[in-house]
Specification:
Layout: H1 12-25, H2 31-40, H3 45-54, H4 62-69, H5 74-80, H6 84-87, H7 90-109, H8 111-114, H9 117-130, H10 139-145, H11 153-179, H12 183-192, H13 199-206, H14 210-222, H15 234-250, H16 252-258, H17 260-279
Helix pairs in contact: 1-11, 1-17, 2-7, 4-5, 9-11, 9-16, 9-17, 10-11, 11-15, 12-14
């Protein structure tokens, strides 16, 4: 039975997402992904990562991926899409990504954790939450929801984390549009919170140049959202929190469905896995921050 919103503590769904999402993301920084995709014939890191995340959409081109990824430069996407599908099919890419996720989780978490009762419990809870995700206006979630659930508990957990990540992400795009933030403004304002990717990682992965970044900074200053030093003003901080609250509302169903006790337990388990992965070097040291 679906729970009621009032049963959940404030921001409980967001906290659960913040513990689940990074474990999905470990694959993008993993040498295991590089190895698998190199074996398929990929030689460009950007092409590997774009193919990895977009393969669930099928042999999509730059236009569809620009719409669903939101904050990537279309020019970067057009350099690689749809050309990447000449190197490997979406089905081959998805299989390679799952093999990379398997190797990555085993390496970061250890065989004992991967085979643990806690992992199986977390997979069951995350999949139960995903039962209440909705497809309409959520292209990345809906595409991933068509994929089979892996049998191994640690891969089922990773798959469920992917579903919940993309469900929230698709909703977040609606919130960004409602707030009037274009792709680079969204990136700059997120980085200014201190919780987003550092400018070096944004510019290196999203295809924007320093001039694009600086122009977005000036636009946000003109709206009173950034101060002269590039930090969020009071209005900017409120806007970012309103964005997250808007996203929370659009993403409430999975966590209401799981219920307060289930969300609390899933968050506890997910945080334990995340701390273990981070301690094992899952993420670059300079990934997050304003510098």
């Amino acid at each position: 039975m679906r729970g009621m919103t009032s049963e959940l503590p404030p921001r409980a769904g967001r906290r659960c997402h913040n513990a689940l999402n990074p474990l999905h993301s470990t694959v993008y920084f993993s040498p295991d992904l590089d190895r698998e995709f190199t074996a398929l014939g990929f030689t460009d890191a950007a092409a590997m990562r774009l193919a990895s995340r977009s393969a669930a959409l099928g042999a999509a081109g730059a236009g569809a991926v620009a719409a669903t990824f939101y904050n990537y430069n279309h020019a970067l996407l057009a350099r690689h899409l749809p050309a990447v599908w000449e190197t490997a099919s979406p089905a081959e890419v998805l299989a390679a990504r799952l093999r990379a996720a398997d190797a990555t989780l085993r390496r970061l978490l250890g065989e004992e954790t991967v085979a643990s009762a806690e992992m199986a419990e977390a997979a069951g809870l995350a999949l139960r939450a995903a039962e209440a995700c909705t497809r309409h206006a959520r292209p990345l979630y809906s595409a991933h929801a068509d994929l089979p659930v892996p049998d191994a508990p640690h891969l089922a957990y990773w798959h469920a984390a992917t579903l919940l990540r993309e469900h929230r992400g698709d909703g977040h795009l609606a919130a960004l549009l409602s707030a009037g933030l274009d792709p680079v403004e969204a990136l700059v304002s997120h980085t200014a919170t201190g919780k987003g990717m550092s400018p070096r990682w944004v510019l290196g992965s999203r295809g924007w140049g320093r001039a694009d970044w600086d122009a977005a900074v000036e636009r946000l200053r003109g709206r009173g959202l950034l101060d002269a030093g590039g930090d969020l003003t009071g209005a900017g901080a409120r806007l970012r929190e309103e964005l997250e609250e808007h996203t929370d509302r659009l993403d409430a169903a999975p966590y209401e469905h799981l219920g307060a006790a289930g969300v609390e337990r899933l968050t506890e388990l997910a945080r334990g896995f995340l701390f273990t992965a981070a301690a094992a070097g899952a993420f670059p040291a300079d990934l997050v921050g304003k510098g």
